[in-house]
Amino acid sequence: MLVTTLTLSLAFASQDPQAPVLAAERERIALVARCAPAVCSVMGMDEPGGGSGVVFDPRGYVLTNYHVVGEPDKGWKPPEAPAGSDAERAAWAIEHHPRGARQYRNKKVGLPDGELYEAVVLGIDPGSDLAVLRLLPKHPGQTWPHRPLGDSDRLLVGETVFAMGNPFLLATDFTPTVTFGIVSGTHRYQEGQGQRMLVYPDCIQVDAPINPGNSGGPLFDGNGDVVGINGRIAIGARGRVNVGVGFAIASNQIRNFLGDLMAGRHAEHGTLDLSAWFMSSATEGTRRRGVYVQSLFRDSIAAAAGIGLGDELLRFDGTEIRSANQLATLVGVLPAGAWVTVWHRQLLQEGAFGDERRVTLRLSRLDTGSSLDAPGEERLASRAERRLVAAALLANWPPPATAETAEAVHWRRVAPDGTEVRAIQAGDRLRLELGDRVLVRESAERGFALQAGTVRELSADEMERLRREWTANSVLMTRPRATAALADALLAGGAHVHGLPAARFELPGDGDCEAWFTFDGRPAGFAFRDPLRRARVEWHVRGTQLRVVVDGALETGWSADEVKTGPVDESWFRRQP
Question: Are strands 364-366 and 408-414 parallel, antiparallel or unpaired?
Answer without folding.
Answer: unpaired
